[in-house]
Each structure stands twice: as structure tokens, then as C-alpha cells.
Amino acid sequence: MTAETTGVLLHCDGPVATVTLCRPDVLNAQTPAMWRAMSDFSRNLPGDVRVVVVRGEGRSFSAGLDLSVAGAQGPGSFAELSTLPEQECADRIAGYQQGFTWLHRPDVISVAAVQGHAIGAGFQLALACDLRVLAEDATLSMAEVTLGLVPDLAGTKRLVELVGYARALELCATGRRMDAAEADRIGLANLVVPNADLDAAVGDLTAGLLAGNRDAVVEIKALLAGAAGRSHAEQQRAEREAQTRRLRDLAGRGE
Questions:
Q1: Is the pLDDT of residue 115 over 70?
Q2: What is d(CA 40, CA 242) in angstroms, rounded to the nearest whole number?
């Protein structure tokens, strides 16, 4: 499958992999074929990759679901999904979610480089990443409610974790749009930069992430990712165990 047929491209350059949505003529609107391709990327990722950058070609990150596909009658359309038995429909959606959830992998840090629109599925793709760098013109919205749908591409938990239940409910239930300044203010952005500086800012962040010891960064990500589900005592134990592994490894005593 090529970028021309799937609408998404994976390029690996040493420890950095770049996922590019490449349908700029439709503002990188997403299709089930793109989600399947992104899921396949996880299986094809070289073992030395440490950072995955997700970006959109052209003037927008992603305007969301491609309604010309979803609203048609063929595979992946709303019409087809509505005819499936409930479990089969849910299983199909689970496959789509894998195109997003692989960005949670413990052995990589994922960075979304967001310019222009990040709407619906586009917003959820940015949320799937560990970190988000926004251009000043970025506009974000969880717009599924405007179609009578719910966000189902693994974005709801990430949103609640980042902004809290009340703010997440307001954003999802209204589908309203927010600009980069608001996204920064409520904790959705790690950095907001002028549009012309987006690539350089992502490059600087990537370099910073690569500067640290890989195994230490993997342990740090695991500690922080699991912190919300642990008590203070459990988190402290996790810290002790992680540090013991690091000390043994640095001393050449690791397994």
C-alpha cells in the first residue's frame, strides 16, 4: 500500500519516525483506510525508533472524518456499520482505534505537530500523541456530537486526563472550537509557536527527547503513564523498582 492509496505515509530516519497525513486537498480528512495503515505502522516500526512525529501535509493537521467516505454506501461507511451485528460493529471500531492507540507505546514518545484544523478524528489523533506542539493558527474541536456521534478513536480518556472531567464534557457535548491560546491555557498544548516556527520547534523538542538515555526515558514514561492509577505508596514502590533496574543496568548488572 502506498501513500497515494492510503493517504498516510511513514518515513523513518534513524531514531525518528514521521507519520504524515498526505491528503492536503481535503485538509487531511481521515478514512478507515488511513486508520488501518496507521495501525500497520506500529508493526513496521524499526526497533531503533525512539520518537514518532505525527503531522499533516499542507495547511491543516486534519479536518476530521472524511464525510464523503463515511456518508457513502461502501466499506467503512456509516450505512455499512449500522447493518452489522453489535459485536461485529464494535470489533470493527476496535480495529480503527488501533490506528491511534499504538502511539501510546511505552518504548516511543509521540509528538503531534498541529497546524490549522484538528477537528474530530484530527483532534483525537493529536490527543493520541504524548506531546502536542501547536501553531498559532491551530483550531481544535471534538466535533462528533454535531454528527450525532461520540468520540470513539481513543480520545475521551486522554482528554479527561489532560483537562479534567468537567472541561472534557463541555468540549465533547458542545463540539465547540477552541484556538491554540485556549488549548495552551487548559493544558492541551506543550508549546504554541508561530506557524513558521512549527517544524523547528518540533525538531528542537525531538532533539531534547533523544538527548536522554533511552532506557531511562522508557522507565520515566512508564512511571508517569501509570501514576494516575497508583496510590502514593504504589507509585513510590514503582519509582524504587525502576531506579533499581537503572542502577543495575548502568553498572552492567542488568539482565
A1: yes
A2: 31
